[in-house]
Amino acid sequence: MAESDWDTVTVLRKKGPTAAQAKSKQAILAAQRRGEDVETSKKWAAGQNKQHSITKNTAKLDRETEELHHDRVTLEVGKVIQQGRQSKGLTQKDLATKINEKPQVIADYESGRAIPNNQVLGKIERAIGLKLRGKDIGKPIEKGPRGK
Q1: Cα–Cα distance between 136 and 86 in angstroms, integer?
Q2: Shortest CA distance to 109 belongs to which of 133, 136, 87?
Q3: Surface-to-core class of residue 127, CB atoms within 10 Å of its CB (0-12 exposed, 13-18 middle, 19+ buried)
Q4: What's the number of CA atoms in the CB half-sphere (13 Å) around residue 56?
Q5: Distance CA 13, CA 75 (A)
Q6: Adjacent-strand bridge partners of 140
Q7: Phi and psi at residue 57, in whole multiples of 5°?
Q8: Residue 38: what pLDDT?
Q9: In angstroms, how far apart are the furthest CA atoms of the chain?
Q10: What is the Cα–Cα distance from 29 to 47, expressed in whole angstroms?
Q11: How far apart are CA 28 and CA 40, in angstroms?
Q12: Quick one: CA torsion of 118, 123, 129, 131, rounded to 10 degrees?
């Protein structure tokens, strides 16, 4: 067997300083004395509670008074849906089932709370047979051949 000395210890590498030690003032000064390149950078608002400070744009935003909101379905359209549904003898749930939507969608359209969706409006138009879009709201849909 090969001779082995159990008492000798071989150090392969020395551990570098930890992050906290490397950032200390002493470590920076020692590195500068050794002639190493030391880069320091100040982080913006580091350690300060700057999240609530007023910026220049805040005043500009406060002066903005324009209200941004989505257009809703008009009450006229809601009444046409309701009348068309009742003339066909359908409940809101029946109409919703017929067009593959939830009953709440029909309730929202009838009450004027819904944001108009052309796909849903088209399905309701076909189900009740009345126009809901354009200038002829409430008039029957002309059933003609669809040309390509």
Answers
A1: 20
A2: 133
A3: buried
A4: 0
A5: 79
A6: 130
A7: -75, -20
A8: 78
A9: 105
A10: 23
A11: 9
A12: 0
Joined together, the tokens standing for residue 137 give: 């709201």
Walking along the chain (148 residues) 10 residues at a time, the average pLDDT comes out as 66 69 78 82 65 62 71 91 94 95 94 92 94 89 67
Q: Are 103 and 111 in contact (CB under 8 A)?
A: no
Q: Which residues contact 81 (CB under 8 A, 6 or more apart)?
A: 106, 109, 110, 124, 128, 132
Residues 107 and 96: their CA atoms lie apart, in Å, by 9
Residue 147 makes CB contacts below 8 A (sequence gap 6+) with: none
Tokens coding 116? 């108009």
pLDDT at 83: 94
Side chain identity at 23, as an amino acid letter?
K
Specify the amino acid at residue 20: A
Phi, psi dihedrals of residue 121, rounded to the nearest 5°: -60, -40
pLDDT score at 100: 95
pLDDT at 43: 67
User: Which residue type, as a one-letter code, is found at position 53?
Assistant: S
**DSSP code string of 87-134:** HTT--HHHHHHHTT--HHHHHHHHHT-SPP-HHHHHHHHHHHTB--SS
